[in-house]
Amino acid sequence: MGLILGKISVETPKYQLIHKAVDYEIRTYAPSVLAEVTYDPAVLGGRDAGFMILANYIGAVGEPQNSRPEKIPMTAPVITHSAQKIAMTAPVVTSGGGGPAPVTMQFVLPANYARAEDAPRPTDERVRIREEGERKYGVVRFSGLATEATTADRAERLRRSLERDGYKVVGEYVLARYNPPWTLPPLRTNEVMLPIE
């Protein structure tokens, strides 16, 4: 019942709150180990198609698809990066041609996996395990459905707020979603995160 009502009862990444503004936070995240998959959403079946590949790796649905085989506890958030660099403008215009950009979806592995070598090796060659060092983000939290349009709009507003306050944005936004898809939309926790210096 807690999952439907938006309760987050799994491990989440550790961070230090550096600054809290009215419309965003600045956070420094501790190093972590990630399981990730990069794919073409048009080929694999949509923007969220990587979820089941990663869920199979950790054993969230059936036997774990890793070398031990070892069930790995689910964590939150599920992180999505678009490989396409998009200039934030309005209005949003869609044109034909190149198709959707590749997407990278990531699960942050539990903190007991301090190094990539600590995690079991995936048996699916599409899954990559890697370490990510300490990083600093400007973050805005929101509820509801994290559609591409909503996420892009939140990212643009966050970018403007950060730049207004003197922060230098050094990359594209990432989307962090904390709840399963059956959680009632008004009770979902989503975050847009922009890397900053």
From TrEMBL:
<comment type="similarity">
    <text>Belongs to the HEBP family.</text>
</comment>
<dbReference type="InterPro" id="IPR011256">
    <property type="entry name" value="Reg_factor_effector_dom_sf"/>
</dbReference>
<protein>
    <recommendedName>
        <fullName>SOUL heme-binding protein</fullName>
    </recommendedName>
</protein>
<dbReference type="Pfam" id="PF04832">
    <property type="entry name" value="SOUL"/>
</dbReference>
<dbReference type="InterPro" id="IPR006917">
    <property type="entry name" value="SOUL_heme-bd"/>
</dbReference>
